[in-house]
Every structure is written in structure tokens, then in C-alpha cells.
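forwarding from the other thread:

> can someone predict this with zinc ion?

sure thing
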Amino acid sequence: MKIEDIKAIQILDSRGNPTLRVSVKADQKWGDFSVPSGASTGTFEAHELRDGGKAYHGLGVEKAIKHIDNEIKEALVGQDVFDQKNIDRILTELDGTENKSKLGANAILGVSGASTRLASKMLNLPLYKYIRAIFEQDGKWQPDLKLSENNFVMPKMFFNILNGGKHADNNVDIQETMIMPNRDSVAENVKIAAEVYMTLKEIIKSKQLNVSLGDEGGFAPDLESNNKALDLVLEAIVGSGYKPGEDVYLALDVAANELYKDDSDEKYVLNGDSVSLSAVQLVSLYKEFLATYPIISIEDGLAEEDWDGWKMMSERIGDKVQLVGDDLFVTNVTRIQKGIDLNAANSVLIKMNQIGTITETFDAIKLARANGYKVFVSHRSGETEDSYIADLVVGTGAGQIKAGAPARGERTSKYNRLLEIEKELNG
Ligand code: PGA
Ligand code: ZN
């Protein structure tokens, strides 16, 4: 079945910044995809094309839309919608740059994602089943493929309920303090997360702190120290009637790039604690955290080019906790392979727009998994109502997802879609 048309419109993301919604057409049907956008982005991410100039403070995406209307449409009309690998190969070759800076990774991902949605619609398959099929079949739909109904794995969910760093206006350095409810079902985990979130709000109010929210929907009060962020979340878990380290675990995204200053030996500046720390000292702080709190993963604990630091961190605490590379790996197989070779981490964060196509996203997941790395599928801080990553995490069996707070439409769309999928599979 051949692609007949492609179009894109400029929409707003959850921060109010422009982004793209792309639609691909075949046989009277359209498949859509809305592109997310990061704030604490890694240097080595694929390029997000923005217009510059005055309108939308330079953040418009009309240039990316022009590329879709012209070169991309010309190259893809007539191509088989069920051959995702071919679609993505044409897109990357048409761009021709290392980081997709010519056409824009936002334009490319929009088309790549919309193609898979269209294909799933044409087959009358839920998106996660179509993703599973092409993930396992080397990027191409095979008509005779038998999909087993029974071996889909629902992911562990990480809810970001306390925001800091670049996602909030408070003094907390840790960008994300997440909770992972430890039940088997999505419905029960969503319930626990929502209850802890409600309790956290009550606690913050009772302490006369500010209940304003950060970009991912978590609370963002000013606190005396980074430890206090963890204490508050722990208090909310206990206050909701759950046992930390049994019913609910903690996870951190330090986003340490944002703390890193390359002008002294004490490179990591923690404003909330009024200290500057070396990588060794910062990992010692993590060690203290691990002894005190039930933390099961630390993302971007060190900066994206501090490879020696990451090796040291892995040696010291890698056997106790998931050490997740986000800005470190940027969903890029070259950087993931480097991490594997150096023994720098043990887990990878997957963000489609860091690399720019569905096929390359699959490649990153496969490489990580083949080397024993744990996998997290992730939203961005700038999100849309699109729930694609819920289907992605189920379809690829990645096992873990983070999609922000259990609140605000652009976050709940992912959790609500997981509720729907669980119901469908149980039914
Ligand atoms: P970002 O944040 O989307 O702003 O990069 C999410 C993360 O760091 O995991
Ligand atoms: Zn991160």
C-alpha cells in the first residue's frame, strides 16, 4: 500500500511552544503524530529545526513544515507504508547530515511516527501490536505474521511528582524525583501514584510551601536542601498508607549536565545544598542517598561527557541501582556502544526525538537490550496530547516508562492509554 499524501500543521506543546503535528495518508486514511520537545537537552541530540526571528520568540516550526511539504513529500509519496525501515532510510538519506540538521529531526520524526500510525490503522491493529510486529520483523510488516496475544509486558511506571532543575523555578537541583509503585497492574500503579500525588500536595500546603507545578506536572516548592525533596516524597508515600521500598520505590533524574561547570575540580554545583562537588564527591552523595532512601534508578547522575566519572560511578554503585544514560546516550547507538565498551552505565533512556526516526529508536533499544542494559521509554518536558510512547513501551517490551506526573493532560494521555491497553489485553 503506497503513501499518497503528507501534510503538517504547527501546533502548541505543553509549554506553549510551537511544534508539529504530521499526517500521512494512504487509501483514504490518515495517521497522525505530534512531536515533543526537550528543555534539558543533550548536546548530541538530533537537531530540532526552529525558524528564528521574532514570531513565537524564534521557536516557530514553519521551516520544518516546508521541508515536509516539499522534499519529504516528494521522496515518500509512492513508497510502501508497511516498510518502515525503507521510509526511515529515505528520510535519513534525504537529510544527509549526522544530526538531521538539514530537514530537522522534528520534521523527520513527525513523518516517521505518523507512518506507523497510519499503517496500524490500515491493518485495524492497535498501534502497540503494529509496533511489536515491525520491531520483531526488522522494520517491515509481514502479512503472514502471527502475533501472540499473551506475551505483552506492561511497563513499570515512573511518575515524576517533584520537579526541580531546568523544569522548575525553585531551588531544588534534582530535576525529577519520581515514584515507582510496585504492583503488577497499571490500574493499581496509577491509583497509588495519584494518591501519593494528592497527599504530597496536602503536605506541601500544610508546610506553607508553594504548590505551583514544574514543566512535567510535579510540585516545585523551594526547599532547604535536596535531601528534603526526597524526605517530602517519602512522607507522602507513608502518609498515603504505603510502604517505601516495598509498595513504592524512588527514582531520580539528576540531569547533571545542568549542574556541570567546567572551570574547577569541583565541577558539580548544587545550589540547593550550597556546595560544589567533584564527580567522586557527588557519587558519594548518591551512595548516602542509596543507604537512606529506596532508590532504584539514578538518571544522568553525571554530565554527558564525563565518561571517566560514569565509569567510576558504575564501579562504585552500578551493582545497587540502575544508572540510566539520557543526555549521555541520546538514544544514539554510537554513544550507547561507547557506554557498553567502557562499562559506563547499565540502563538507557529512550526518547524518539533525540534520534529522529522510529527505526533508529528500535536500533537503540535492541542494542541496549542485547548487552543486558535496562530500557526506559521517556516523554519530553515539552509534550503534546499524543500518547505514542505508551504503545511504544508495550510494543517493544521495553519494560519501563516515565511520563511525568499523574496529572495534566499531556502526561495523563500516556498513562490513560496504558490503562486502555491493559484493559484490552486482559479482556
Ligand atoms: P527534557 O527532560 O525533555 O527537558 O530533556 C526530560 C529528561 O531529562 O529526562
Ligand atoms: Zn533526563
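The radius of gyration is 21 Å. thats all i got for now
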